[in-house]
From TrEMBL:
Gene3D superfamilies, A to Z: 1.10.3730.20
Subcellular location as annotated: Membrane
Keywords noted in UniProt: Membrane, Transmembrane, Transmembrane helix
Name by which UniProt lists this protein: Multidrug transporter
Signal peptide, first to last residue: none
Bilayer disposition of the protein: Multi-pass membrane protein
């Protein structure tokens, strides 16, 4: 990046997404996982819809587009956000953030299964390293193993993101609408889907200030504002630069969990984070050198909805 402001925006974005796991953990003191997911989606949708209104984006969509956006909303927002809330009922917020960082691994894995990705040596090594890091973190062989239902719920959420991005790449990329407009439509559809999950584990809302402030911050800042900031960062600097947040957000989540909530740190988690992020870095390597020379870098161009959302650890 060439400007200090870009570094600051990147750090702010990492802080917004990395702190989302802290907000979820705090909000669970007063709300159920579906209630948290529904509230953050509604607040995030309002922010994105307001942004679209300010920019004059056309939000009209036919039945075909709505059906595709709804499928994307299920796997990219409604389902994983409910699962992360369920997961954080039994595991630390920092661990949830680390497991969320496996999303690019799942995306490539599902892309390989349907023939959308090529299995190059660096990609195969990245997948092996990334999932080895997950095994190291969970340590199923250890008496203090972290392999439990909460961790599996968070891993399933990351896999859901992977399914969503493969689907988005095939069904929504290149549709013609600005990415932020498609995101607003997706978030609106996700609100309806999340509402269907509200009866699950219903709990009486505890009107405690801190949890309610946490879910408010999660929706307005960790969802709506974070997505808008990511959109601006990609437009100014390109998706490759913006993708750096993928490596910063899990570190932020671990540090905030330790500093604010007193969550334990151990060498397995720290080493596992390093291994997972190394794997993610390898699978992000460009296909080959000749391919890189065929297209000049255009930092002010948004290439597609998939490229925008793949940089979003919390979606």
């Amino acid at each position: 990046m060439r400007h200090t402001s870009s570094y600051l925006r990147l750090l702010v974005l990492a802080l917004l997404w990395g702190s989302s796991f802290l907000f979820i953990k705090v909000a669970l003191n007063a709300l159920s996982a579906p209630q948290i997911a529904f509230t953050r989606i509604v607040l995030g949708a309002l922010v994105l819809l307001a942004l679209c209104a300010l920019r004059g984006h056309d939000l009209r969509a036919d039945r075909s587009l709505w059906s595709r956006v709804t499928v994307a909303a299920l796997f990219a927002s409604a389902l994983p956000w409910v699962l992360i809330g369920i997961g954080e009922q039994t595991i630390d917020s920092g661990l949830a953030g680390v497991l969320n960082a496996t999303t690019p691994l799942w995306t490539v894995l599902f892309g390989l299964l349907i023939g959308q990705e090529r299995l190059r040596p660096s990609r195969a090594t990245g997948l092996l390293l990334g999932f080895s890091g997950v095994v190291l973190i969970l340590a199923p062989w250890h008496s203090a193993s972290l392999l439990q239902w909460g961790a599996l719920a968070c891993l399933t959420a990351s896999a859901s993101y992977g399914i969503a991005y493969v689907y988005i790449g095939r069904k929504l990329t290149g549709h013609g609408k600005p990415p932020v407009a498609l995101a607003a439509l997706q978030m609106s559809a996700a609100a309806g889907l999340a509402a269907l999950a509200l009866p699950i584990g219903w709990t009486q809302v505890q009107f405690s200030p801190l949890p309610l402030l946490a879910v408010g911050a999660l929706g307005v800042f960790g969802t709506g504002a974070a997505f808008a900031l990511n959109y601006r960062l990609i437009a100014d600097e390109g998706a490759t630069t913006a993708a750096t947040v993928t490596y910063l957000a899990p570190v932020v989540s671990v540090l905030l969990g330790w500093l604010v909530l007193g969550e334990a740190l151990n060498w397995r988690i720290l080493l596992g984070v390093l291994v997972v992020l190394t794997g993610v870095a390898l699978i992000r390597q460009p296909d080959d050198a000749p391919a890189r020379r065929t297209r000049p870098h255009r930092p002010n161009r948004i290439r597609g909805y998939t490229e925008l959302l793949t940089n979003h650890p919390m979606k």
